[in-house]
UniProtKB/TrEMBL annotation:
This is N-acetyltransferase domain-containing protein. Gene3D superfamilies: 3.40.630.30. InterPro entries: Acyl_CoA_acyltransferase, GNAT_dom. It comes from the Eukaryota. One of its GO terms (molecular function) is acyltransferase activity, transferring groups other than amino-acyl groups. Residues 65-219 form the N-acetyltransferase domain.
Length: 230
């Protein structure tokens, strides 16, 4: 298994376009196979124009992390070889890292894009940057192999790389009763920040659902490269 972040640019569109198409296909498949895991739906996203898919892959505040079958040693960090792996190997899992945001932008992002009702509860004056994690999906044939934990650890490393090791908080939302997902995040040192109830309309639901808001602090001068969860 190898984990990569999708490239945002290549010298030519001909090299990037197949990556965007592969991402689109995997995202739509995940929505079809596990609609209960997402705040969106297959019917909504199948109608997206190309511009939205391009923005999702190439946007400056969006990093898509993909686990593929195969050996990461085959690419050795070479951009073209990573692209070849992403096009050749089966995609097994995905996760999106959104950010970085400063405190003011993070409050808006958590409320508008992650539907956190009380984003100010997550804020900390000592934290310089914030990221959101969302859209985790592991294909049915790859579950139980620890891919979720691998994606989370990669996301933490990527976030620190983006902000130069400064103190950073990663935040996510998961259904409170999704014990498997919560345990995956706990293995990545995420802790419960708070929980809330919301009107759940996913997959035609008409009920109240309890959500868990989880966070992990990483980086900073006192703890570079290590978790600083409290």
């Amino acid at each position: 298994m190898a984990v990569y972040s999708l490239p945002k640019t290549f010298a030519s569109a001909e090299k990037l376009d197949p990556i965007i198409e592969r991402y689109k296909g995997f995202r739509l498949l995940s929505l079809k196979q596990s609609p209960e895991s997402f705040g969106s739906s297959y019917e909504r996203e199948i109608a997206f124009p190309d511009e939205i898919w391009i923005k999702r892959v190439c946007g400056p505040l969006s990093t898509n992390i993909i686990a593929v079958a195969g050996n990461s040693a085959e690419s050795e960090g070479n951009k073209d070889q990573e692209r070849a792996m992403l096009l050749k190997e089966e995609w097994l899992a995905s996760l999106t890292l959104s950010g970085p945001f400063d405190k003011e932008a993070a409050v808006a992002m958590f409320k508008n894009n992650m539907w956190i009702e009380s984003p100010s509860i997550i804020m900390d004056d000592e934290v310089e940057f914030y990221f959101g994690l969302y859209g985790m999906y592991v294909a049915p044939n790859a579950r139980g192999a620890g891919l979720g934990v691998s994606l989370v650890e990669y996301a933490k490393e990527k976030a620190l790389e983006i902000v130069g090791g400064k103190k950073t908080r990663l935040v996510l939302v998961v259904d409170f009763d999704n014990i498997g997902a919560r345990r995956t995040y706990e293995k990545g040192q995420f802790v419960l920040n708070h929980d809330y109830w919301f009107d759940d309309t996913r997959c035609g639901r008409s009920q109240r659902t309890q959500s868990a808001v989880m966070r992990v602090d990483i980086g900073g001068s006192d703890n570079p490269g290590k978790d600083a969860t409290s």
